[in-house]
Design a protein that fits this description.
It contains no helices and seven strands. The chain is mainly beta. The strands form two sheets. Strands 4-3-6-7 form a four-stranded antiparallel β-sheet, with no helix packed on it. A hairpin with a 4-residue loop joins strand 3 and strand 4. It is globular.
């Protein structure tokens, strides 16, 4: 995933802090987050989580500094978000 165009949005999706250093939180008020896939700027998958929960905290201690794209999915919607690790 290198583009964020033409991607459906998960209603009410929140993500913070951004930029982040130690951890990153993603939450959805209406639906459980079923899958989160994180890609580096080259498009290489660096993490995949299946939280099945409305909120997830991602540990960034193993992530290099830089820009990432997180593909966030519920059972019915998908969003992609930019994540900056500093």
């Amino acid at each position: 995933i290198l583009s964020l165009e033409n991607v459906d949005r998960i209603e009410g999706l929140r993500y913070f802090p951004n930029p982040a250093a130690e951890h990153f939180t993603i939450s959805s008020p209406n639906d459980a987050l079923t899958e989160i896939t994180i890609f580096d700027i080259r498009g290489t998958q660096v993490a995949r989580l299946r939280p099945n929960n409305q909120m997830v905290e991602i540990d960034l201690s193993e992530f290099a500094l830089g820009l990432y794209i997180a593909r966030v999915a519920t059972s019915s919607q998908v969003s992609s978000i930019k994540l900056v690790v500093e």
